[in-house]
Design a protein that fits this description.
Elements (H helix, E strand, L loop, with lengths): L1 E5 L10 H9 L4 E7 L6 H5 L6 H18 L3 E8 L3 H18 L3 E7 L4 H9 L3 E3 L8 H6 E6 L3 H8 L5 E4 L6 H9 L4 H11 L14 E5 L3 E6 L8 H6 L10 E4 L2 E4 L4 E4 L5 E4 L2 E4 L3 E21 L2 H5 L1 H19 L4 E8 L18 E9 L2 H17 L20 E9 L3 E5 L7 E7 L2
Parallel strand pairs: 1-2, 2-3, 3-7, 4-7
Antiparallel strand pairs: 1-8, 4-20, 5-19, 6-15, 8-9, 9-13, 10-11, 11-14, 12-13, 15-17, 15-18, 15-19, 16-17
Helix pairs in contact: 1-3, 3-4, 7-8, 8-9, 12-13
Length: 449
């Protein structure tokens, strides 16, 4: 059996201290925690920076390092620094150095980097080793060269290589959410279907329980499957909460693709062992003929300026879409006659359908609507210039030319808020490797003392 302790869904989200202590008392074989994902958008991959504050990250990481020392087992984090880009990994390594220096603790760290050079990816594209996934954008040598960061998602094999160094702490770049949890159970010969399935269930900590915010869970892996138990005092794992997690961030609730194969849970069974824990068996791991890793990339998409106006007049609120469409058309025509650089104006209705846009067929207009103007251009200067042209439209534009000029409200002065350089995701592809470590770099370092 292999026991994996997962403190929380991601470093920076927080966890219950009592739940973590309870988990440590159960003698885990490894502590595994996720460091991020693409959930928060392309900025963090584009810039190689963390979504979470340094102080909060350091405080939680210090506690986990202390828990690791108490348990005497490895501590592994994947997708360090939110995106897993090389600079984000270095950021967490530096925090780890600081903590070791402050505490005097001697630790060996293994650093697994996932960043890819654009030139290498251009060569891989030419060699036919990059394959598009469903709904992937078209890519070219130019697009790959334009990426500020490209990462490959490491799987269990790369984490196993890092653990094989004997490191106390493994700080990994971009990994699949499951790799850091499945690596040791797979290395020890636990059921492969159970290892990958349990890792998927545990990827977000207590999210697959009745108390998602409690954070800490224990998963026991064995020769036939796995058992999950939350450590929070009021948290329970049930067959429903556990089985439902296969729906989370997954296109197919029965199939999960990972480097080297896919998980099939079509025949999995979920058994409540008691009021708090669930055992799962019957999951199947299907090996692939090829070993591929997913690629993620981000590139600069232009400079942006955002404006916000508040519309409360009942007639304008009722006709808000027509009003915005007229503003977008009129301001775009004006700006194109005065600016010879490419730009884009987008108006989003805050409080109506800003999230889903036209897909939100049931959006209901309320008594007040916020109209957010987003201007994106090749330079910040042009973005700000066009946003200032948009200003009088948002403040005074009438529904028709035969009525009095209205006046709406800006919550800020000036209303134009420069956002600087913004990024966009531009890869949804896989890279074929001859050997799992071909796209990754592994180093070790002794700290503290």
């Amino acid at each position: 059996m292999t026991r994996v302790l997962i403190p929380t869904g991601a470093l920076g989200l927080g966890f219950e201290r009592a739940a973590l202590a309870k988990g440590i008392a159960q003698a885990p074989d490894i502590i595994a925690i996720d460091g991020g994902s693409t959930d928060s958008g392309p900025h963090y991959l584009g810039t190689g920076t963390s979504k979470y504050s340094r102080s909060a990250t350091k405080a939680e990481w210090r506690e986990l390092m202390a828990a690791r020392a108490q348990a005497g087992v490895p501590l592994v984090i994947g997708t360090a620094g939110t995106s897993g880009a090389d600079d984000a990994v270095d950021w967490l390594v530096e925090i780890t150095r600081d903590i070791a220096a402050e505490t005097g603790e001697r630790v060996k760290i293994a650093v697994l980097k996932s960043g890819q050079k654009s030139d290498d990816m251009v060569a891989a594209l030419a060699d036919g080793r990059i394959t598009a996934l469903t709904a992937a954008p078209d890519i070219s040598e130019t697009l790959l060269s334009d990426c500020t960061n490209i990462v490959a998602l490491a799987g269990a094999e790369q984490i196993q290589a890092a653990l094989a160094t004997g490191a106390d702490i493994v700080i990994a770049g971009r990994t699949t959410d499951t790799a850091i949890i499945s690596a040791l159970p797979l290395e020890r010969g636990c059921h492969p279907g159970g290892a990958w399935h349990g890792a998927k269930i545990g990827e977000c900590g207590a999210l697959a329980t009745t108390s998602p915010n409690s954070g800490t869970i224990i998963i026991d892996f064995d020769a036939e499957g796995f058992r999950i138990e939350p450590m929070g005092s009021h948290a329970r794992a049930t067959p429903r909460t556990v089985s439902a997690h296969m729906l989370y961030e997954n296109a197919d609730p029965n199939i999960l693709f990972e480097p080297g194969g896919h998980l099939d849970v079509s025949n999995a069974t979920y058994e409540a062992l008691d009021a708090r824990s669930v055992r799962v068996t019957g999951s199947e791991w299907v090996r692939s003929d090829r070993y591929t890793v997913k690629l993620e990339g981000a590139r600069a998409a232009g400079y942006q300026t955002v404006s916000l106006a508040l519309v409360r007049d009942a007639r304008y609120v009722a006709n808000i879409r027509e009003w915005c469409a007229d503003i977008q058309r009129s301001c775009t025509e004006m700006a194109r006659s005065r600016v010879d650089v490419a730009f884009n104006i987008d108006l989003r209705l805050i409080g109506v359908n800003a999230t889903l846009g036209e897909l939100d067929c049931d959006a209901v207009v309320g008594t007040e609507v916020g109209v957010m103007g987003i201007v994106t251009a090749e330079t910040q200067a042009v973005s700000g210039e066009v946003a200032k042209m948009l200003n009088p439209f948002l403040l005074h534009h009438p529904l028709t030319q035969q009525e009095e000029m209205p006046t709406f409200a800006f919550p800020f002065s000036p209303p134009e808020m420069p956002r600087g350089l913004v990024y966009e995701f531009c890869l949804n592809h896989v890279l074929q490797l001859d050997h799992p470590m071909d796209a990754f770099r592994l180093t070790t370092e002794d700290l503290g003392g």
